[in-house]
Amino acid sequence: MQDVTITVNGRPVQAGIDERTLLLDFVRDVAGLTGTHNGCLEARCGCCSLEVDGAIVKSCNVLAVQVDGSSVTTIEGLSPERLRPVEHITSQSLAGHYQPLEALGADAGDLHPVQAAFHACHALQCGFCTPGMVMVLKNYLEENPEPTRDDVRTAIAGNLCRCTGYQHIIDAGMQAAEAMRGGVCRTAIESPDGAPTGAGAQAGAVAGVGAGPGVGVATGEV
Length: 222
Ligand code: FES
Ligand code: FES
What we know:
With 222 residues, the protein is α+β, with helices and mostly antiparallel strands. The chain has helices at 23-30, 94-97, 113-121, 130-143, 149-155, 167-180, 198-206, 214-218, and strands at 2-8, 11-17, 49-52, 55-58, 71-73.
């Protein structure tokens, strides 16, 4: 056993842990923040991505003792005061628990720009990959505020999504970049002729009325 203290989202978390404890397990089981997901444990999927002292790491491939004394930011750290926790939900109970985002006391405009862009662009389906995607893009866009679509693709090259086909994730990355540069975070994406694109039409459908079950995951609630 070894005592470690890791600052997680600004809060020091001290514990005596087995030296083999992964940072991923420390965040989920010791700090109690389950927004960081375990998808493969082999540094392949990126679901477990978080920041250590401002750098993105795959927390399934880092021991907690290696980052003793460091500061970690997880998906929950992006909008810590703005969302109420929700009860754990399953697909079976989802219909009974589902509420639009506003009913949870939150508004898409209160989210981090990357989270808001994922919401607006409907850049998720099951949402399992979403915390990792959001963390990687947030970190990338802070360093690269004017990306091309290819840049965004490259930024998420280490993150796998089984559901979305990636196009809406790229849309969200571009929209988040614009918002983080100080532009307006649009709720619809227009094609060159001004008509809503597929992504824009979806964004319009979800803007202001919340999104599907993945939103809880996007915001680190589940
Ligand atoms: S769980 Fe870490 S990369 Fe898949
Ligand atoms: S794995 Fe990406 S939304 Fe389902």
